[in-house]
Amino acid sequence: MSEMQETLSSVVQVAGNVPVIVDGDTGYGGMINVRRTVRSFAAAGAAAITIEDQVFPKVCTYAAGNSVRVVSRDECLRRVEAALKARDEAKSVDGNEILIIGRTDCRGALGYDEALSRCKMFEAAGCDICYAENLQSRYEYEHLRSELLPSTPSILAQVQSGPISREQMYTIQDIGEMNYDFALFGITALQGYLASLTGIASQLMASDSTGLIEEEQDEGNNVMSKIGTGATKLLSFDDVKRIMGFDEYETIQKGS
């Protein structure tokens, strides 16, 4: 948990005014741990935290499928109630505000009806946002949303694996039409990042690679670079410096 808190602090600092939602997993232990996690993440600047119903230690829902293990409904409720109490303490005692996202991962193991029941339980308990992971059809997403109060914010999360299917992947427009308030593309940025890294490494290590970078302009006349004849594009060094804040750093160093 302490490693997550440290990373969260760095992310919040870089994000500036952009709200940061942090994955609190199961709360990292028992009810005392849940409360400590919520208050610690609130102190680190998180805008919201998910608390889920998996057995600790948790697994990736999309990877594990039907083998995901979840706690009983009663324990799930006690977990979110501990988080909600910590939310209130964070505000009244520490002066930090944070929202609680009640999340269930039970769809694969216990079925849709149980996922719906747990989301309605989150709502009744006072969770700020409700979230059911890995539902299996548009009908389930739409039905879940219709069963919650219109005033209860909800999340639709997706992981892209293999070719895009409109039966399995939804656009931002689709998600809005289903009346969800948040769209979570959990690892899309990570997938792109790793694809770029592996592509660059493969091209640099190829037998016909010169290791030289060629530059070209895109349709907007922005200079992009690519490695040899490969398809991997690189930002110009000037763009890297701009994004990483080199100019701001140099200004501060000069004391101006």
Provide structural commentary.
- This protein is 48% helix and 16% strand.
- The chain is an alpha/beta fold and 256 residues long.
- It is globular, with a radius of gyration of 22 Å.
- The longest helix is centred in the first third of the chain and has 22 residues, at 73-94.
Give the arrangement of secondary structure elements.
Blueprint: H1 2-15, E1 21-23, H2 31-43, E2 48-52, H3 61-64, H4 73-94, E3 99-104, H5 107-110, H6 112-125, E4 129-132, H7 138-147, E5 154-158, H8 172-177, E6 182-185, H9 188-205, E7 213-217, E8 223-227, E9 233-235, H10 237-244, H11 246-254
Parallel strand pairs: 1-2, 2-3, 3-4, 4-5, 5-6
Antiparallel strand pairs: 7-8, 8-9
* Helix content estimate: 40-55%
Q: Enumerate how many helices there are, as a single number.
A: 11
Main β-sheet, in a few words? 6 strands, parallel
Structural class: alpha/beta
Amino- and carboxy-terminal Cα gap: 39 Å
Which consecutive residue ranges, at least 5 long each, have pLDDT under 50?
none
The string of secondary-structure elements, in order, is: HEHEHHEHHEHEHEHEEEHH
Radius of gyration using CA atoms only? 22 Å
Strand order of the largest sheet: 1-2-3-4-5-6
Mean pLDDT: 88
Percentage of β-strand residues: 15-25%
Note the overall shape: globular
Q: How many extended strands?
A: 9
